[in-house]
Amino acid sequence: EVQLVASGGAMVHPGESLRLSCAVSGFTFSSYDMSWVRQAPGKGPEWVSAINRDGTSTFYADSVKGRFTISRDNAKNTAYLQMNSLKPEDTAVYYCRADYGFDRSWGQGTQVTVSS
To answer: How far apart are CA 11 and CA 15, in angstroms?
Structure first.
């Protein structure tokens, strides 16, 4: 059974940091590109960041570039999203996603709230 379990969300103040994790099981993690997608209240999904299967290439939305860092540990079957200098507009449910060609799987989401 394919499972992606996202964790690490919390309520923080502006300027603080969080690290999200996405633990994967049920498929060969190192064969999949990984992404983070977020959805803010009342808005559509927004792609945030992606990393290729061996971690050599990373991509970011302009809204998070320079503040967020995506990484992965293929030995631990886990992807990460380090989020620094958080802003209220980063408030959203964050989902991890695994892609292999047309094969796509989603995690359950973890809530990040940035508020003073």
So the answer is: 12
